[in-house]
Each structure stands twice: as C-alpha cells, then as structure tokens.
Write a structure and sequence with these properties.
By secondary structure, this protein is α/β, with parallel strands linked by helices. It contains nine helices and seven strands; from the N terminus they run H-H-H-E-E-H-H-E-H-H-E-H-E-E-H-E. The strands form two sheets. Strands 1, 2, 3, 6 and 7 form a five-stranded parallel beta sheet that branches. It has a two-stranded antiparallel ribbon with strand order 4-5.
C-alpha cells in the first residue's frame, strides 16, 4: 500500500527513481500493475479534498450537507471565484509534489495531474459555461526558474491543456520582481511579499484559470486574480493539485 512510501530507504529510492517512467510498476508501493504512475489501491488511498470551502477549497473538519464558505472567505472575500483542487496536501501527496518540484522527478507529478484533469473535466461537464478561455500558470521569476530547471505550474498547465483542449499562456502574466520564498509566511506576509511582483502584459480574455501545484494561504491566487480582473477578466478560477489545511 501507499504507506510503504514512508519506509523507502535511500537505496530503494534510487531504484524507484530509475524506473519512474517505466510502465507496470506503481511509483508509491512498487507493486506490479497494468499502467503507469499509481496503482488503483494507492490511487484510492490518496487524501481527497471532499470536505472543503466552496470558494477557496480550504479543507474542513466536518461534512456539511452542501459546500459552505470558510471564515476567511467570509471575512476577506478573495478576487478569484473558486478553487478546484482535488487533493489535500498531506502524505503521500506532499512527498510526491516535493520530489516532483525540487528533485526533477516529473513522473511523480503525472498521477496527481491526471487526478486534477479528471476533477476539472467533471467540473466543465457540470458547468460548461464556466469553461476558461485560457490557462495561466502561476509565473515564476526567471532567475528562480533557471535555478530550479522548470516551472511546475507550466508543466501542469501544459498537460491540462492537452487533456481538456484549452490553450495556455506564459506571456499574459509575468513575474517582474523576485522576493523571499513564500514558504513559512502567513497570509498577510505573503500578500506583502507579492506586492508589485506580477504584471499583466495585455488584456485578458473573459474567463481564466490560474494553474499552480499547491494552494497554501491563497495569497498568490488572490493577487493574480485581482490583477487579472482589474485588467478586464470577468471570471477567474484557480486549479491546483492540492490544498493545505490552512
């Protein structure tokens, strides 16, 4: 089962890394199965974000009869209209995303991207009028992108674009100022850190989906959505692999 991922030794991890792109072996438990990525048992064991705020997708501790707004969205309504994120940022999703982002193990991100694509497809079937005109990956400063080697938001956007047939763009929004890392900062600190960090380079289409890997405090999404709506967008969603508890 997927809990075995916690017990991987350094040598075993090295072995898994060499076979990540090979079909027939689960990337979490290494069991043999017909396919790529996660076997059905590990896929079913992922922490899905069923109980959530209807706007920012914050995981909730209870299961209301219908989706409700969290306290933060009630007190400080965000500029984005909704967040679609099917998973909670906890084990093993946090480990998979961390290795996907920082260790260049892109194969570890593919099963999570597929889960998001499935969630988004269902959303668009239920609400076809909300289909975005363009996908906009959360921009990364060029210096940081060169250091990391890739922008995971762009990688996710490319795969979603191929899956649902919506174009994506890396030119509509640019990151013009680098700043301290967002990790470890609260919402107010993140908002201050992001002030004047982004630039919208042209008039956006009416409906946009911002693409990212993880929504933490939602500060980046708030800033980007506000900028895009100020520039002319009417509807802004956020699509991400996972949402943190807060």
């Amino acid at each position: 089962m997927i809990k075995r991922l916690k017990l991987l030794s350094t040598q075993f991890i090295s072995k898994v890394n060499r076979t990540l792109s090979l079909p027939g072996q689960c990337i979490a438990c290494c069991a043999s199965f017909q396919g790529r990525g996660l076997c059905s048992r590990c896929l079913d064991a992922l922490p899905y974000n069923w109980q959530r705020c209807r706007q920012c997708a914050l995981p909730l501790a209870f299961a209301p009869a219908k989706l409700v707004l969290c306290g933060e969205c009630l007190k400080h309504p965000p500029a984005f209209d909704r967040v679609i994120t099917p998973l909670r940022y906890q084990f093993p999703v946090n480990r998979l995303i961390s290795r996907y982002k920082y260790s260049h193990q892109r194969a570890l991100g593919r099963p999570l991207i597929n889960v998001l694509a499935h969630e988004v497809s269902g959303h668009l079937i239920r609400s076809p009028t909300l289909r975005p005109d363009i996908l906009v990956p959360s921009p990364m400063h060029p210096a940081k992108q060169r250091k990391r080697g890739f922008n995971q938001a762009e990688d996710i956007a490319e795969h979603l674009s191929l899956s649902i047939g919506v174009p994506w763009s890396v030119t509509l929004v640019k990151r013009q100022r680098a700043g301290p890392a967002q990790s470890g900062l609260n919402r107010q600190q993140r908002l201050a850190n992001l002030r004047e960090a982004f630039e919208v380079t042209g008039r956006p289409p009416p409906r946009i989906a911002i693409i990212d890997d993880v929504v933490t405090t939602g500060a980046t999404a708030r800033v980007l959505a506000e900028l895009l709506k100020t520039a002319g967008a009417l509807e802004v969603e956020v699509w991400a692999l996972a949402r943190t508890p807060g």
